[in-house]
Amino acid sequence: GFTTLLIVGFGGAQVIAGTISVGTFTAFIFYLGMMLSPVKEGGVMVTLFQRGGSAAARIFEILDHEPEIRDAEDAAPATQPVPAPAQAASAPDESKPVPAAVVAPSPTPKPAAKVIAATASFPAISPFVSVEGAAASGNHIAQYQLAQDRIAAGDFAAGASMMRKSATKGLPIAQYGLAKLHEKGMGVPKDLFLARDWTQKAADGGNVKAMHDLAVYMAEGEGGTQSYAGAVEWFRKAAEFGIVDSQYNLGILYEQGLGISPNLTEALFWFEVAGKSGDPGAPAKVTELKSRVSPQAAELAHNRAIAWEASRDNAISNGRFGAQPWNTGNPLQVQGVQVALASLGYDIGTPDGVVGTGTAQAIRSYEGANGLPVTGTITGDLIDSLNARASGPNNG
Q1: Using an 8 Å Cβ cutoff, are 159 and 148 in contact?
Q2: Using CA atoms, how far apart are residues 168 and 184, in angstroms rounded to an integer?
Q3: What is the pTM of this model?
Q4: In sequence order, what are the residues at sequence separation of 6 or more whose Cβ sits closer than 8 angstroms to the Cβ of residue 59?
Q5: What is the C-alpha R_g of the chain?
Q6: Mean pLDDT by 10 residues, the chain (396 residues)
Q7: Closest by alpha carbon to 248, among 288, 276, 217, 287?
Q8: How many DSSP H helices and E strands does the chain contain?
């Protein structure tokens, strides 16, 4: 505006006259600009306060005004329900309207405990089974898992005893576990001959770690006779299932011609596979052998390694059992509980076999309504209580 023009004109004349420097004049303009913004904001705030004061005065004037229409002295409060007229033998007098009761809305209630109808229809849930009970009844998977629990708790004798029961029934992962106990002397006498024997059984049953260990026993001659040919056989089987150490060791045997005719191209292939699987020593062997074979052989080994994929092992032989009846909360059992609660009117969402927020809340509501400890989880007491109301065979 005009003020700015005046300042620039006056300051410019001072700069030309040499009274002030260009830098000083520039700084003055800059600081002046910084001052203008707070001053403007202060003016705005003063205006807002004035408007607010005027508005408040008008509001208070309205609030203080006495209404001309008033309630009768004996008028009932608007929120008080009007009692319903008593029943009479004669028909009600329709000439006088009955005033409707005015009731304040109540808050939305949380899921309440329900009175369970004995006629609800749902299948019984698979019974709650403990791993101890399943093991005592002879289940070899339960025996193996219980053995693992005992060993993890430091009770090696009990763990070894239970592991032997499972191994004797032919579970490969238990046979391998018993072999490792004999190898280390944990809960049983240290005995490499027994360790190798149980390792052989586990390897024959499809346990891939046992295949590798058996090859090591054969290569080193521990617990029995030495056999490089046997080591090549079992290292190859374990390598095909993706055991990295077996892949590297098989490369060594091919390179050195132990138990098999020397074959640098095959050795290079297995070192490439081991390197692909993450073995830290394999890349150096790959570099070394590439200089000892033809470029064509190196390319062939490399292309084979890129295309190579591990074979799929047997899940049970290698300790992947899936959900078992004694695993509380296994998906089948959870789904059975969800179906039962839904049949009884509880909101559990979709019966998907997962204990989510809705299922946990429904369990807590049911437990509270039926005198059970409120846990929000699947327990033996919960299953027993629901099964007492079931109408069909169990879902397991």
Answers
A1: yes
A2: 19
A3: 0.59
A4: none
A5: 43
A6: 70 76 73 69 69 68 59 50 41 40 47 48 78 92 96 96 97 98 97 98 98 98 97 98 98 97 97 97 97 97 97 96 74 85 89 87 93 88 87 56
A7: 276
A8: 16, 0
